[in-house]
Design a protein that fits this description.
It comes from Haemaphysalis longicornis. The chain is an alpha+beta fold and 506 residues long. The protein has 3 domains: 3-144, no CATH class; 148-244, Immunoglobulin-like (Sandwich); 258-498, Deoxyribonuclease I, Chain A. The model is unreliable at 1-8, 87-91 and 121-130 (pLDDT under 50).
């Protein structure tokens, strides 16, 4: 870091996206009576430097012209970047880029021009970036590809008594590398030490806690939350981002039935849970036929995920086997929140346009993942040697085969090694079998296919693992799937084979 950077402790950031041939420039600027504002420019890497510099100057100037020049600002912003670069009759800020005090030729591409330690300077301005800009008497150091927050948001619905965490897309770091500071909005008339206060979005906030998540109390109802998210990695700190809740904290359910279940055991625990995917819960069929007794707000994922996450946290499980997991919910909630709790997870999506599937999480301080497997059962039936005899039998019943081969059912398995017993292995498997009331014979076939796949995985290992096979089998003890799983055998006279108009075997 150059001495000027150390003196000012202000930075501008450039993040290069080589895949998209783009770069993002970010810095904060304030002057005189103009409040500090965040500036972000997303530019093509092949764009000439002079065009980018002109756009920086134009953006800052437009912001400072005030309400009387709003109309002209819109007109100038509507012009092409080339026009902006040619605007010399009314120069507002003269912006230039320097490397080690030497001006950078403006015909260079932006991808080549913006480098660590460069200085973007104007006669009145100093700004250091990942490529740097200078404005007035302010100077910012350039940091290239520093940890950064591309976007971040808090949940749409925040309830007292339920954990809150942010979803963020990051560059050059992970959420585990970030610093989190949570604030709550302050009511008028309340006073706190100045060092605990923070102002944002015309509101005043008071510091609550540090950490990746927080749980609002019932005293917080009616207040907004603010998260200051600071990306960092290996001693390099990126720009702190303000993440403000769009809505105030609302009351949550006082007592949830799952809280009693959370105390059944304090030892090793596995949890299997069908979450009911949002794509199904929020459908017209769900509202009018399946769950007409349920308030509509309670079927929405924004509400339900508060309860789901609180329940999962409370079980203190070592293994989670989850079904009907929305792809977005896995990526933005489960993987993030359970990751904060020390879990790693795998997602296997069904062969379906509904974007939902299976998820398996394990506690990282107890297990290490050796290998993972994901399959769609209909595909596996045609290609897996372990299922060849089942395929031969199914081929004799075209109607059953047609039904079986069109189902999106997924299967996943993880081979885990216990951290405290590294000479042992644990194979865990997860699935969600066919749901239809008249599909008992299909479920039996799917269950048997899963068993055979597990047996195949076991046969490939020198050390024979213990096995935990969980999931939503859409069955109960009086049906054949339970008998197959517990006794390893179902006779040809089992009623499950004959619940359909097209029984199996034929």
């Amino acid at each position: 870091m150059c001495s000027a950077a150390a003196a000012t402790e202000k930075f501008a950031y450039v993040n290069h996206d080589s895949e998209k041939s783009r770069l993002r420039l970010t810095f904060k600027y304030a002057s005189g009576d103009i409040k500090e504002r965040l500036y972000t420019l997303n530019r093509a890497s092949v764009e000439e430097l002079r065009v980018v510099l002109a756009r920086i100057s134009l953006n800052i100037t437009n912001n400072e012209e005030g309400k009387t020049k709003r109309k002209r600002k819109k007109q100038e912003n509507s012009r092409s970047d080339e026009d902006a670069a040619k605007t010399e009759s009314h120069p507002k800020l003269l912006v230039s880029l320097e490397h080690n005090g030497i001006p950078v030729p403006e015909d260079l591409t932006s991808g080549d021009a913006w480098k660590d330690g460069s200085i973007l300077a104007d006669a009145n301005i100093c700004l250091f970036w990942c490529c740097t800009v200078q404005i007035g008497d302010q100077r910012y150091s350039v940091l290239v590809n520093a940890p950064s927050v591309r976007c971040a948001r808090l949940p749409k619905l925040i309830m007292a008594g339920f954990p809150v965490y942010a979803y963020a897309e990051l560059d050059d770091c992970s959420l585990n590398d970030c610093d989190f500071a949570w604030y709550r909005s302050v009511d008028r008339g309340q006073s706190y030490p100045r060092r605990q206060l923070y102002s944002a979005a015309n509101m005043l906030f008071v510091f609550v806690q540090n950490g990746p998540w927080m749980t609002p109390t019932y005293q917080d109802i009616g207040h907004h939350l603010l998260l200051l998210l600071t990306p960092q990695k290996l001693g390099v700190q990126g720009m702190t981002v303000e993440v403000l809740s769009n809505t105030a904290i609302q009351p949550g359910p006082m007592n949830c039935p799952f809280q009693n279940r959370q105390y059944f055991t304090s030892q090793f625990r596995c949890v299997s849970y069908n979450l009911l995917a949002g794509v199904y819960a929020e459908s017209q069929l769900a509202r009018e036929t399946l769950y007409p007794y349920c308030a509509r707000y309670a079927l929405k994922m924004d509400y339900r995920k508060n309860l789901i996450m609180k329940e999962l946290f409370g079980y203190r499980s070592d293994l989670f086997f989850l079904q009907e997991v929305d792809r977005k919910f896995f990526r933005e909630d489960l993987e993030v929140a359970l990751g904060f709790c020390g879990f790693a997870g795998y997602y296997t999506e069904k062969n379906s346009p509904m974007a939902e599937g299976l998820a398996c999480f394990y506690r990282k301080n107890k297990f290490r993942s050796i290998e993972s497997h994901s399959m769609i059962l209909s595909n596996a039936l045609e290609v897996q040697p372990a299922l060849a005899d089942i395929l031969a039998k199914v081929n004799k019943n075209p109607r059953v085969k047609e039904r079986l081969m069109t189902l999106p059912t997924a299967f996943q398995a993880l081979l885990l090694q216990p951290m405290d017993k590294q000479d042992r292995l644990l194979l865990v498997a997860n699935t969600h079998l066919y749901y239809h009331p008249e599909g008992d014979h299909i479920r039996l076939l799917q269950a048997y296919m899963c068993i055979r796949l597990v047996e195949q995985l076991l046969s490939d290992l020198e050390v024979k693992p213990a096995v935990v096979f969980a999931g939503d089998f859409n069955s109960c003890p009086r049906y054949g799937v339970y008998q197959l799983m517990t006794y390893g055998y179902v006779s040809e006279h089992c009623p499950d084979w004959y619940t359909s108009k097209y029984p199996f075997p034929s």
